[in-house]
Amino acid sequence: MDCSGKTAVVAGGFGGIGYATCNSLLSKGVKNLGIFDLFENGDLLQKLKSNFPKANIKFWKVDATKKSEIENGFKGAVAEFKSIDIFVTSVGVVDEMNPERCVQINLLGTMNLNYVAIDYMSVAKGGKGGLVANVASLSGIVPFPLCVAYCATKHGIVGLTRSLGSDFYLKTTGIKFVSICPGFTETPLLGNFAGSPVNSVKTDSAKLAQQTAETCGKLLVEALEKDKNGSIWMIDAGKMKEIIPPEYYSGPTGT
Ligand SMILES: NC(=O)c1ccc[n+]([C@@H]2O[C@H](COP(=O)([O-])OP(=O)(O)OC[C@H]3O[C@@H](n4cnc5c(N)ncnc54)[C@H](O)[C@@H]3O)[C@@H](O)[C@H]2O)c1
């Protein structure tokens, strides 16, 4: 999808990867940008507005674990921008000591963000269709022994995104879905590797970073531009690569 002149909304838009994605989308000519996040970050919002004075940039407070707040966010964004072309979810936590919270935010939060996005973007519901990109993780496609709960939620996001990113849904919604799988990226999230109920490894996770958030956000937008429904993009060590999973099964899928 060509981003120029489009309307985009980024959930988790004040986080490391989310904010870099906002910058990258605006650099590519996005004209309306909505940011959903837990809290408004006035400094970051102002910086975007100063750097991209022609764009219409707005914030909505959205806790991804609260369906009513997701609804309000979309309602507000559609009232302001008329329609949404691109929706990015970049919401997540590492919290191995609290797997319920990890599932609630990473997996259920992303799922509900996607379901409400379909309500507001689907051509079957009066929208224009478009593209949804879910930031999963490299640990959505490979094991991650240090953070097993996190890894499970990220595998869940890839399964969710690939299932929604099928012709079955595209035919009626006009929305394409893509999975983004970053490797270790310099953001505040990396500070939260503190052991778990199944390991007590203390990792200096900051040392694991292989790329900046800015590089990740730039490549993420390049993945969106490929406009390929159901695709999976690994973004690691400053490089992007499409992941094509093996075809394990070709029987009936029930669709
Ligand atoms: N940093 C990495 O190495 C890395 C690697 C792979 C995937 N990711 C994923 O990238 C995404 C962004 O993470 P990041 O690295 O930028 O970290 P970050 O901590 O900077 O950003 C996380 C964002 O999620 C938001 N968030 C948390 N709970 C929320 C909730 N309940 N409702 C709404 N928003 C909520 C935060 O406010 C923040 O904006 C996450 O899904 C993360 O799992 C990060």
TrEMBL record:
Source domain of life: Eukaryota
GO BP of this protein: alcohol metabolic process
Catalytic activity: a secondary alcohol + NAD(+) = a ketone + NADH + H(+); a primary alcohol + NAD(+) = an aldehyde + NADH + H(+)
Pfam families in the cross-refs: adh_short
UniProt keyword annotations, A-Z: NAD, Oxidoreductase
GO function term, MF aspect, one: alcohol dehydrogenase (NAD+) activity
Enzyme class: oxidoreductase
Family classification: Belongs to the short-chain dehydrogenases/reductases (SDR) family.
Name assigned to this protein: Alcohol dehydrogenase
